[in-house]
Known about the structure:
The complex is a heterodimer. By secondary structure, chain A is an all-alpha fold. Chain A is 38% helix and 0% strand. The longest helix of chain A has 18 residues, at 8-25. Chain A is flat, with a radius of gyration of 18 Å. In chain B, 44% of the residues are buried.
Amino acid sequence: MKLQVSSNAARLLKFSLAAGVLVATSACSNVEPWVKPYERDRLADPIMFLEHDPVSASYMHHVYESREGARGAMGSVGGGCGCN
Amino acid sequence: MNNARFTLGLLLVLSAMLLADIARAAVLPEDRTDVMYHRYEGDNIAIEGPAVLIRKKLGKSVSVTGNYYVDMITSASIDVVTTASPYNEERTQYSVGVDYLRGGTMMSLGVTQSDENDFEARTYSLAISQNLFGDLTTVTLAYGLGDDVVGQVTDPTFAEDVSRQQYGIGISQILTRNLIMMMNLEGITDEGFLNNPYRQVRYLDDTGSSYSFQFERYPNTRTSGAASIGARYYLPYRAALHGEYRYFSDTWGIVANSYEIGYTHPWRDSLTFSARYRYYTQEQADFYADLFPRFDFQNFLARDKELSTFNSTTIRAGVAWDFGKEGIGFMDRGRLSLFWDRMLIDYDNFRDLRDTEALPGEERLFSLDADVIQLFVSFWY
């Protein structure tokens, strides 16, 4: 019996790259920020940090990835409010 | 190599953490040191050790980081007791990184080296992060390159290579004064010797009433894609609620979904309580089977329970205590944190071979409970 592997992941990867290029190129447009810097006090509260403890987040992701078949895109790769 | 899955997982995670560090782009990460004791215990496996993470700014544009991590493993897991012998081993890992900030752009480089008696891994990471739209949006692009060497304790001449590439895109977006959301896409490709040289699959003997073992055989390539979306919301009484969903699929046929929700609640000035619930479900790899019908039944063979069909629930309780807010020597403040996670995994097609009374393929299904403890102290300076 020969197995054929699926190409779902490859398609997702291509989609990811295309989405990234789209986002990167859209940076040229000039958007007025609807949440002003002085309105970001709550987002700057440490309880709103996407990963408050990097050493802990790293460890837990490690535990999950060793017990599960899935991997990647965990946690807050692009997180943060720019208001640290 | 018994720990290779842990190693690979951690290297992937560290690459992601490199990105997380630059998540708050346009400002360098805080100067901070964390010293942690971690312990995982479940299915007769105990993995414990220290972890140290140090970060320090050099001037206004550069921040450097160093990480030291150790896993000390004592294992008599279900795989070990049914097909091998209990063992002890240790893995040590070092990583260093540097972030460079220029305007709204952060560039990061990192390298990680992991060593154990039968597995060596090195990963290089590169990431660039840019703030856009009045700093409401942060876009991160990342690339990682890994080179591993798989060894075998019982055969010193055994050495096989694995190469790995990672591509990641992350976006965080401020939506309102109280709400921030994030999206991540990550593709990973592996090429080389991807199976565990020790693990075996079982197949039915000709009689049909007993079984034998042969070594696993995996494809030499794997490509996976994962996409996640999450949000964090500030509640009116100063607490935070967060949720996250992730979809995963790969060329081995694994499809997985995970869901997480969590709550953070500060109490008075010094304590912060947290709780989290996570549910994960997975469909098996195409070439996985608990019991193959005969020897060499197909070209690829696996009986790794992490490639089977299962679901997993993790519940967390955590507490953190802030201290020394007036300063401790040259430190600005400190925090002591304790997190306890309880993992419950139910396998749908991985059977417990210790059930010797049952016929092959009719043994009770295996399940696993694990406790994960993290105790760490953090200092800001």
